[in-house]
Q: What sequence folds into this?
C-alpha cells in the first residue's frame, strides 16, 4: 500500500527504538550500511507527529520521547524542583553563549572567581561537559553544553537560545573591551601556577615519604 512507510523508514525506526541513547543521522546511517537517512528521519518524525510518542531532534541527535502534553500521566512521584545557585546560573549561561570556554574566560566575563564546585554541579546535572583543552600555555580545560542541556530546556540547538540579539547589542556576548584578552591570559597564568604549586606539593610529600621509609629501613637494619 502507498501509505505504508518505506523499508528505510522502518529500519530507521527500529534503529532508534533499540538505541540506548540519542543518535545523529550519521550514526544511524552507519548502522544501516552508510545510508542517507535524513529524509527518512523527517518522514518518521511526520509519521509520529500528534501521537503519544514523538520523534525529536536535540542538538543534532534524534530520539523518541513521550509527547510533552502527556508527560504528566507517567509521573509517579512528585517532582522536586532543584534551583541552581546564582553563580551556577551565570556560569551555565556563559558556557551556553560562549562555548567552548575555559574557567579563566568564565571568570573574566563574570568578574569574580568561579569555584570548581560550581562547574561540578553543572557537570553532575549533565548539562555541561569537558570539551578538551585550549592549546595555549597551561592547556586549560574548556567547557561546553551537552545534548541533555538542550533537551531539558526544549531547544533544538544553541541557535534557539533566547535573547541573542539583545545580549549582543548590550555587549554581553562578544566582549569588546581591549583588556579582555589580557584578563583571560592573566587568569590562565594564575590557574596554571596554582595547579603547578599543588603538583609540586604532592611531589614534595612523596619525596618526604620515600625518605622516611628509607630512614625506617635503616633503623630496622
A:
Amino acid at each position: 500500500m502507498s501509505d505504508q512507510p518505506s523499508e528505510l523508514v522502518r529500519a530507521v525506526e527500529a534503529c532508534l527504538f533499540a538505541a540506548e541513547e540519542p543518535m545523529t543521522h550519521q550514526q544511524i546511517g552507519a548502522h544501516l550500511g552508510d545510508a542517507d537517512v535524513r529524509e527518512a528521519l523527517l518522514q518518521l518524525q511526520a509519521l509520529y507527529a500528534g501521537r503519544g510518542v514523538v520523534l525529536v531532534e536535540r542538538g543534532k541527535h534524534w530520539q523518541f520521547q513521550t509527547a510533552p502534553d502527556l508527560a504528566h500521566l507517567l509521573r509517579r512521584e512528585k517532582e522536586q524542583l532543584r534551583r541552581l545557585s546564582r553563580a551556577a546560573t551565570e556560569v551555565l549561561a556563559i558556557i551556553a553563549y560562549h562555548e567552548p570556554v575555559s574557567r579563566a574566560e568564565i571568570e573574566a566575563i563574570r568578574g569574580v572567581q568561579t569555584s570548581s564546585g560550581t562547574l561540578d554541579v553543572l557537570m553532575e546535572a549533565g548539562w555541561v561537559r569537558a570539551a578538551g583543552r585550549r592549546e595555549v600555555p597551561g592547556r586549560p580545560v574548556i567547557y561546553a553544553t551537552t545534548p541533555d542541556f538542550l533537551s531539558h530546556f526544549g531547544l533544538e540547538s544553541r541557535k534557539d537560545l533566547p535573547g541573542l540579539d539583545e545580549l549582543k547589542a548590550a555587549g554581553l556576548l562578544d566582549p569588546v573591551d581591549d583588556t579582555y584578552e589580557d584578563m583571560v591570559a592573566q587568569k590562565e597564568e594564575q590557574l596554571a601556577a596554582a595547579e603547578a604549586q599543588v603538583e609540586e606539593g604532592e611531589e614534595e610529600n612523596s619525596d618526604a615519604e620515600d625518605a622516611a621509609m628509607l630512614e625506617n629501613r635503616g633503623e630496622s637494619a
